[in-house]
């Protein structure tokens, strides 16, 4: 099967990847990534709950316009030709996993958020790692 | 507590820093370049800037201000998006014009820089830092901030050998030189004698080069042509008559460091070829040897000649010239070109000569005699040049009062020897003025009785300034008017005009200058032979050159007038 992205100029692909990495990869765990390890187990404190909610529900917050991680992912991957590279598949799965938690996050359901902390952390980590890998690969191929 | 300015279009960095660096004062975030410039103008003591790269801000706030041409090319939306995603780098460029020394952490890692960013240049810049981490880790950022602030506080207020001043032109020059210093390419320094080329190479470029080896300087105008090869590349025992032992040249000594070749135009064509090999391959062969040696050096060359003209005339190899990286040659302005900040330059150099041991002792002696406040042991008395008597007595500082006409005379003077000559002039001025005051207490009072009781103000009489400047003016007697003495001694006979009321110092300097020029002609510009004749030491050519510089003699002019080719 031919590479569907072959017709897209390489520098454009790199720009798209850089944008994804910056807008989604950087901010999906902006505050969460700086929490202490202790925040991810035991009682859920206010800072942890707020950080997780803000990072996922308002991943991009420009001029009062908030975009959730999944809204951002959808918008930024829209021009990308299918099928996606493997890295984007992994990111898509991680984003979907976060989206399943949309209701408790929006409702600020602390019990549900506390229970889903490890899953959230893992999804955030996957998004960051895979987007960094995608960007690095495209830069290397330049 | 340090003041940190965050330049970011959102509050994300500010919130994180507030949480992780509560010990610092975080100024309200600036949302674009204009706000940043305003904040920096208001808060003079910002210690550090954290600068985001991506700015989602209105088009009108984006740099560059004049971007219509840029946007007209191709897809306008995409061009705007690119501008936004690299806006921080535009802001950095603009900030550097006014704040070359301000530490700025660009909040991105090297891997995340926009495609069009010049990563090498950013890495080479002084005081510009990128994040080590791919994604922001606030604890790492805090460590990075603490490290930068600690290094900053450990630096003395004045850590530069060269007076850069605050004009835009000089700040840009400093920044450019700082960037070139860290690169691996050679640097060409251009500029007249006394403009500070060798000082900059030694005390500005070398320390910034990141090299751990030594700084080695060679003035090629003082080395006889036949010894230059051995001096540069080293020699093997028996290579020629007189080579009684093998010895390393300056290249070997400079390995791992910086080699400064002053007056590069004096290098013979044959040696130019060998230097080219060094620059191309990092290899050379000592005189008389068949074995190549490897060397790793940063090469800085200086000249006050036009190398491109020398290339055209066939006196300098074009391939070497191109290899020396002429596109980035840095021209140091002459003192005459620094009229804009001449007053500040005077202050800087007066303070500098006031720290010289002899002047320092004299000034302290005067301060003691006049009941001024003596600084703590070892510290020099602060001094300054002023054009008006300060309103209040300042017992901690000595003010040298120059008449406006004297200031004008100094500012408008030719200064062929540039900063070196100015420094020597001011040193003489301070010494002669203070010596008289110390020796003859009755002369302490200024001529204006209104200021008679001000021990902190020392007037400098216009006559003293005139007398010291006069010997440095262009010669009044053409060299053609001097001739060999006909008494059979081989001496030189010179015609000389002494004007009424001319000081002895002025007369002797004038005489000395003419004599030096005459010798220069007689010895075809060979400074070694001049040194042999004057000092009995052929190796003291540098001393002779320095003295000629001090007397305001322009070697280049002399050479053009019929000196060596």
Intertermini distance of chain A: 22 Å
Give the helix tally of chain B.
23
What is the number of helices of chain A? 7
> What order do the SSEs of chain A take from the amino end to the carboxyl end, as H and E?
HHEEHHHHH
DSSP E strands of chain A, number: 2
Rg calc of chain B: 28 Å
Category by helix and strand content of chain A: mainly alpha
Shape of chain B: globular
Largest protein-protein interface: A-B, 23 and 21 residues
Largest sheet of chain B: 5 strands, parallel
**Radius of gyration of chain A in whole Å, from Cα?**
16 Å
Q: Which percent band covers the strand fraction of chain B?
A: 5-15%
Q: How would you sum up the major sheet of chain A?
A: 2 strands, antiparallel
For the record, the count of structural domains of chain A works out to: 1
Structural classification of chain B: alpha/beta
User: Which stretches of chain A of 5+ consecutive residues score pLDDT under 50?
Assistant: none
**β-strand amount of chain A:** under 5%
Taking all residues together, what is the mean pLDDT of chain B? 84
Shape designation of chain A: elongated
Structure, explained:
The complex is a heterodimer of chains A (142) and B (565). Helix content of chain A is 61%, strand content 4%. Chain A is mostly helical and 142 residues long. Chain A has one domain. In chain B, α6 (119-124) links the parallel β4 and β5. By secondary structure, chain B is of the alpha/beta class. Helices cover 43% and strands 12% of the residues of chain B. In chain B, the strands form 5 sheets. Chain B has a 5-stranded parallel beta sheet, with helices on both faces. The A-B interface holds A 11, 14-15, 18-19, 21-22, 25-27, 29-31, 33-34, 61-63, 128, 132, 135-136, 139 and B 9-10, 12, 15-16, 19-20, 54, 56, 82, 85, 111-112, 114-115, 134-139.
SSE arrangement:
The complex is a heterodimer of chains A (142) and B (565).
Chain A: H1 10-26, H2 46-57, E1 60-62, E2 65-67, H3 69-77, H4 86-99, H5 102-106, H6 110-115, H7 117-140
Antiparallel strand pairs in A: 1-2
Chain B: E1 3-7, H1 12-20, E2 25-30, H2 33-42, E3 48-51, H3 68-72, H4 76-85, H5 87-98, E4 104-109, H6 119-124, E5 128-131, H7 138-154, H8 168-182, E6 187-190, H9 197-208, E7 215-219, H10 225-233, H11 250-253, E8 258-262, H12 269-281, E9 283-284, E10 293-294, E11 298-303, H13 307-312, H14 318-323, E12 330-331, H15 342-354, H16 357-369, E13 383-386, E14 398-402, H17 404-412, H18 418-439, E15 457-460, H19 462-469, E16 483-484, E17 492-493, H20 504-522, H21 527-535, H22 541-550, H23 555-560
Parallel strand pairs in B: 1-2, 1-3, 3-4, 4-5, 6-11, 6-12, 7-8, 8-11, 13-14, 14-15
Antiparallel strand pairs in B: 9-10, 16-17
